[in-house]
Amino acid sequence: MNRVVLIGRLTKDPEMRYTTNGIAVTTFTLAVNRPFANQEGERQADFINIVTWQKLADLCATYLRKGRQVGVEGRLQTRSYENQEGRKVYVTEVVADRAYFLEKAEETRTGNQQPSHDPFAPGDPFADPFAGSGKPINITDDDLPF
Questions:
Q1: Domain spans of the chain?
Q2: Backbone angles phi, psi at 71, to 5 degrees
Q3: What is the pLDDT of residues 105-123, one digit of tens each?
Q4: pLDDT at 19 over 80
Q5: Torsion, Cα of 93, 97, 101, 102 (10° steps)
Q6: Separation CA 120–CA 101 (nearest Å)
Q7: Are 23 and 51 spatial neighbours (Cβ–Cβ below 8 Å)?
Q8: pLDDT band at 42 (very low <50, low <70, confident <90, very high)
Q9: Which GO terms describe its molecular function (predicted)?
């Protein structure tokens, strides 16, 4: 099984490109904190390259920015290529098939207006259906799967 689940913060804005066939691909790097501190008591992070394709690539390029917290699910992939000096370079990255935007976007971003669609807006299929209702949730034993 090859499954990766990560939560981290973007180290810079995502970069979106298109293949020669017109397929969207977006790349970004996540800083993922390690669960322990080093000998000096400082927390360290791993910097993990993420690749998204097609509709997910478009969503990530539109809504994610440097510093935003995001969760990703996907698979680990290793590939290689020859650089300009003729040396073989190996790359390990996560090819994400899901992304979870864990923070709301700010009202403005460095002078740029936020996109008109907020992925956390009510009615969004990924939004919390109980957020802001202020009403108790009625759950019976018949509703539980166990």
A1: 4-107
A2: -110, 140
A3: 663 344 444 444 555 455 5
A4: yes
A5: -70
A6: 8
A7: no
A8: confident
A9: single-stranded DNA binding
| 140, HSE (Cβ side, Cα atoms, 13 Å) | 1
Reference 96, options 1, 25, 13, 9; nearest CA is 25
Token code pair at residue 29: 């790097």
The segment with the largest mean pLDDT, out of 10-19, 100-109, 121-130, is 10-19
Q: Write out the two tokens for 13.
A: 């804005």
For residue 36, give the nearest of 28, 44, 25 by alpha carbon: 44
Nearest CA among 44, 49, 54, 64 for reference residue 6 = 49
CA–CA separation, 55 vs 68, rounded Å?
19
CATH level 3 topology of 4-107: OB fold (Dihydrolipoamide Acetyltransferase, E2P) (2.40.50)
